[in-house]
Structure formats: C-alpha cells, structure tokens
C-alpha cells in the first residue's frame, strides 16, 4: 500500500453493481471527487480464485478483462497515495442479459482529421456494446450524456436492436468540444443502456482533450572555433524543441528574435517537422547570430523564440545566450593550476596515492603518514569562476574520517565577504561505514543562483582521533550556453493620469519599474467601476505610454461614467496585473477644467 505523505482523502469509485457469470470487460472509474485520478491501483478478487489488477490511465479509468468463476460476489479494492483505500463489492448474476460497452472509436473528419480530440473539434463517436450475459436482450438502446458545459452531445441516442449472448452492435453519436478545453482535460460522459424489458445498465466514458505544447529544451552552439560564443563571433545554433503536450504538433517551425543590442539574427527561421507527444526534434537547419565586437567579454543576451505548429497553435519561449568563456574544469593532471591553499595545519597537496581519473588528485593529509592531523582548518581554493546559465558544481571525493567527532570537508562557494556552505561531508555518528575508504563518490550542487564564484574545500579536524582523510578529483563547473528563461511577469504600470483633449480623453502612464522587456500596452474601458480586464472591454494596444480615446459621444454625458485600466505585455506575451483604475471621468474632468 502506498505511504501517506499528507492527510488522506476519500476516493470516488464507480463500477458496475453486478456482472454475469462469464467473461466480461469490467470498467472502473476513479476520481478525487472532481478530477480523474491516474495511477490508482484497482484489484478485483473473488473467493473462487479470481485475481486481476491494474492501474488507472490519465482519464481515471481502467478496463479489466475478467472471467467470473462462480456465484461468489467480487471484491473491488482501490488504493492510491494519500487516499483512504476503497472497498466495494459486485454481485454475480447466474442468468439473464448483461449489456456493457466493449469499445469505441473516434472520427474527427469535421475537425482537422488528426484522430485526436482537440479544443473546438466536433467528433463522431462509434460505441460498440456487447451482451456479456446468458439471455437475449431485446430492443437495446442507449443515451449518452455530458454534465460538463464544455462538451455538448449533439446526437445522443443510439439503437442496437436485439443482442443475443456474445453479440455485439455499434451505433454512432456526435459530440462537440468547446474551444475552452485544455490539454489533458478529461471529460466523463455517462452512458445509460436499456432494453425492451426496462433493464438498465450504466457505463462511464472518459474522453481526453489533447493539444500540443512545444517548448525549447536544448541547443548546440557552433562558432567555427573554440565552441565558445565570444564578441565578434558568428554563431550557428541548432535548437531542440520538445512536445510536452498530449497531442501531436504538426509542421513545427520557429522564429528567433534578438532582444539585445549586441546580437544580430542573420538566419531567423527553421523547421522541425511534426513532433509527436513526449518527443523532441532538432532544427532542420541552423539559426545564425552575429555578436558585436563591442559586446562585453562576459555577457548574457536575451532572445525570444516564437514557435508555431500548423495554423492552430503558437508558443513563445524566452532564451538566454551566454557570451564569453564560462565555467571551470580541472582533472588535477596539470599541476597546481589556479588552485591555492592555506589555513591552519595546511596539508593540502597533490598526490598519486589515489585518484579518480588518470593518476593525480588533491589530498589533505601528511605525505609521510597518509593521515591527517588534529586541529586542522585547511582550505583548497579555486580561482574566480564566471558562471554560465544553470551552472552546476560536480567533483569526486574519496574519504576516510573518524565516525564520531567533527572531522570532515566543508564545500563552500562565494567570493569576497559572501560565502555559502553547500555541504558537509564527514563525522557525526551517522556515516555509512561501507562508503568510507572503499570507493570514489560523486557530488553535484546547483549554482544557478550565482553569477561569479570561487570554490573552496575546507577540511576541519578536531583534537581527537585521526584517519586517512580526504581526496578531491575531477572538479567541473559547467552550465548551458543557451537556456530557457522563465521571465517574470511585468510589474503594473504606474502614474496613470487622465486629461480632456477637445472631446477626447487622453490617458498617460509610466512604464513598469525594473523591467526592460515591455513590448506593448493594452487599454481597457468600461462603465462599471469594478470591471475586470477582458477581451470584450479591450480598446486596443499601443507601444507608447499614452493613448487617446476618441470614440464619438465619449464625453459630455453626465449620466455615464467611464473607467480605464492599463496592462503591460512583454515580448513573451506575459501580462502585468491591471493598473489602478482612473474614473469617474466626468467628475474628474470638471475639476480639470
């Protein structure tokens, strides 16, 4: 049973109340009360030896093929992490008809014909029923219903005629999905089946709305030189896009825009073909950038990537290009290099006694005894390292210290007076003795919060027992040349003011503070003082910090007041929160006059 990590909730489980004593498809639907629950474990057992289990899919459903062995009732158990177990029972019918859904198929020829349920699609649904019972069911019919406002069943009734035991029949339905559906949204439709004897069976049909969602994931940089984008270079970029949605992304292409004065895009477009769900594609041709000679030697330049898929879908990502040599790498095979060391009882030195790669590592301990000494506070310090985006620190260590005490290595990064301890590797009574002294161990730390650092390894020992000590090898600080930038939403515009210009109203405002990438502003107007900005009350957009509203009859009517809001929109489509409202205008304008 899964371990609870939170207060357990109640599972909501739906399944047939009875089944015939034969082979049957047994459908179970699991939700949390509102949404489908994927990955719930469903188990069906009986005293006669039946045992079937499986996990629910993304639509919260699973169909188990059961061979019901005898008259004993079936037990249904459902478990999921952070939910109370559900226990249910199912009666076994020894005779009579039993109609259930066998399968279904979709046809979206009236949509884009891709075989998926996309927002705005109208689909034809073919539902096949089967008589799993032992007697004939006469005049079988069914009604398909939806309680979700985003789904409309246009043709809801199906006729299946007479079904003898093991007979199947199909009927067609038509369903319309709103444009408001989103990727991964699951809709549970109810199917009520009835025969001429007024016997009723129920089934739940889970349909999933899917869309492609295409994002940037990686980049290969080629500068025809050392592989480092530098001032004066022309750089080829091979971008990698991934479809993280549930629908296929056809005919993907992307345009690259520079948002930095030091960059010029020479080749701005490339195709990626069709990207299937959970798949990636590399640009069919390279993008090309020119970096200005006047660019600082270490600079991070923003770009925008506008991605389109067919004529229906568009996406935007923000990117950062790291210009100039970044990071650090030392396998300890070329002497002391840029490392320095010092502190109390400093016994840091290079050795060939142990190494992770090749023959050399740094060791903190006596050369003659291969032991460290008491009362050490000795450091090994790198030179200053300029970091690239999403940088990480990795290295390998071998160690043997006393289990109890305070002997160990502090992993520290920083510069000047600001230093942060990332980790402590050493004594404390909770060491795994199988790890000490037996093998080299890898370490990795996130440096994405830093721009420029030094790496410091400080070995400390107390005044008690000693052991062999600490070895360090293969230190690497690496980052990406280009990374996805989660750009913050623009701050709200400020200082919104109003003035009367003849018979028009003039708005002006100030740009958001500390945000350089505002692309344009959207203006909203309504006669309600507490209105919310929406497409219906949008007047238009401007790249300026002013707007002149010249609608006829706007001013001069004392019975009507107008209220305005302004929102900033960045190059990636992110909108700021609304500005403060200005109004009531007629009263204010009288004061202005």
Topology:
Elements: E1 9-10, E2 12-14, E3 18-20, E4 23-31, E5 41-46, E6 51-55, E7 61-67, E8 74-79, E9 83-84, E10 86-93, E11 99-107, E12 122-131, E13 137-145, E14 151-155, E15 157-163, E16 168-177, E17 185-194, E18 200-209, E19 214-222, E20 234-243, E21 249-258, E22 263-267, E23 269-275, E24 279-282, E25 287-291, E26 299-309, E27 313-323, E28 328-330, E29 340-344, E30 348-351, E31 361-364, E32 377-381, E33 385-386, E34 392-400, E35 408-415, E36 418-426, E37 441-446, E38 452-460, E39 469-478, E40 482-485, E41 494-501, E42 504-510, E43 518-526, E44 538-542, E45 546-549, E46 563-570, H1 585-592
Parallel strand pairs: 1-9, 3-10
Antiparallel strand pairs: 2-4, 4-7, 5-6, 5-8, 8-10, 11-12, 12-16, 13-15, 13-17, 14-16, 17-18, 19-20, 20-24, 20-25, 21-23, 21-26, 22-25, 26-27, 27-40, 28-39, 29-32, 30-31, 31-39, 32-38, 33-38, 34-37, 34-39, 35-36, 35-38, 41-42, 42-45, 43-44, 43-46
What does this structure look like?
It contains one helix and 46 strands. 32% of the residues are buried. The chain is extended. Helices cover 1% and strands 53% of the residues. The chain starts with 8 loop residues before the first strand and ends with a helix. Strands 28, 30, 31, 34, 37 and 39 form a six-stranded antiparallel beta sheet that branches. The protein has 593 residues and is mainly β. It has five domains: 9-93, Immunoglobulin-like (Sandwich); 99-209, Sandwich (Immunoglobulin-like); 214-323, Sandwich (Immunoglobulin-like); 328-483, Sandwich (Jelly Rolls); 494-592, Immunoglobulin-like, CATH 2.60.40.10.
């Amino acid at each position: 049973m899964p371990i609870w990590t939170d207060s357990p909730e109640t599972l909501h489980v739906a399944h047939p109340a009875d089944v015939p004593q034969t082979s049957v498809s047994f459908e179970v639907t699991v939700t949390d009360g509102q949404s489908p629950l994927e990955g719930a474990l469903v188990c069906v057992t009986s005293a006669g030896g039946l045992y079937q289990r499986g996990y629910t899919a993304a639509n919260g459903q699973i169909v188990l093929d059961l061979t019901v062995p005898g008259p004993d009732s079936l037990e249904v158990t459902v478990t999921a992490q952070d939910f109370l177990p559900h226990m249910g029972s199912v009666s076994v019918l020894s005779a009579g008809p039993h109609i259930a859904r066998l399968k279904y198929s979709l046809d979206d020829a009236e949509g884009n014909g891709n075989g998926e349920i996309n927002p705005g699609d109208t689909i034809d649904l073919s539902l096949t029923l089967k008589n799993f019972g032992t007697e004939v069911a006469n005049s079988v019919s069914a009604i398909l219903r939806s309680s979700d406002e985003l789904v409309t069943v246009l043709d809801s009734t199906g006729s299946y005629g007479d079904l003898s035991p093991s007979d199947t029949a199909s009927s067609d339905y038509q369903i319309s999905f709103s444009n408001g559906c989103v990727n991964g949204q699951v809709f549970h439709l109810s199917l009520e089946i009835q025969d001429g004897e007024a016997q009723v069976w129920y089934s739940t049909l889970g349909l999933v709305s899917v869309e492609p969602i295409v994002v940037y994931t990686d980049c290969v940089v080629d500068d025809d030189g050392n592989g480092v984008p530098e001032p004066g270079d022309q750089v080829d970029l091979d971008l990698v896009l991934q479809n993280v949605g549930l629908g296929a992304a056809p005919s993907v292409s992307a345009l690259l825009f520079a948002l930095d004065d030091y960059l010029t895009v020479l080749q701005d477009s490339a195709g990626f073909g069709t990207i299937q769900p959970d798949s990636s594609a590399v640009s069919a041709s390279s993008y090309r950038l020119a970096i200005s000679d006047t660019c600082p030697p270490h600079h991070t330049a923003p770009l925008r990537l506008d991605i389109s898929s067919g004529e229906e879908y568009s996406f935007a990502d923000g990117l950062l290009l790291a210009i100039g040599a970044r990071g650090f790498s030392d396998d300890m095979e070329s002497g002391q290099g840029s490392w320095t060391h010092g502190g109390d009882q400093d016994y840091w030195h290079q050795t060939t006694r142990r190494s992770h790669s090749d023959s050399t590592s740094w060791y903190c301990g006596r050369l003659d005894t291969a032991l460290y000494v008491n009362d050490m506070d000795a450091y090994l310090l790198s030179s200053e390292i300029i970091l690239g985006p999403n940088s990480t620190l990795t290295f390998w260590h071998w160690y043997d210290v006393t289990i109890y005490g305070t002997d160990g290595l502090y992993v520290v990064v920083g510069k000047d007076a600001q230093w942060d301890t990332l980790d402590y590797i050493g004594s404390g009574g909770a060491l795994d003795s199988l790890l000490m002294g037996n093998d080299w161990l890898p370490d990795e730390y996130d440096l994405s919060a830093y721009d420029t650092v030094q790496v410091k390894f400080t070995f400390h020992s107390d005044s008690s027992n000693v052991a062999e000590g600490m070895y360090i090898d293969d230190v690497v600080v690496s980052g990406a040349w280009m990374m996805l930038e989660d750009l913050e939403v623009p701050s709200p515009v400020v200082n919104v003011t109003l003035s009367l210009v003849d018979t028009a109203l003039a708005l002006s405002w100030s740009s958001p503070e500390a945000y350089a990438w505002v692309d344009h502003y959207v203006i909203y107007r309504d006669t309600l003082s507490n209105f919310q900005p929406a497409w219906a009350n949008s007047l238009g957009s401007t790249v300026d910090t002013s707007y002149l509203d010249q609608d006829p009859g706007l001013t001069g009517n004392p019975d009507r007041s107008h209220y305005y809001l302004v929102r900033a929109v960045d190059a990636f489509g992110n909108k700021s929160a609304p500005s403060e409202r200005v109004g009531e205008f007629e009263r204010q304008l009288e004061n202005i006059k």
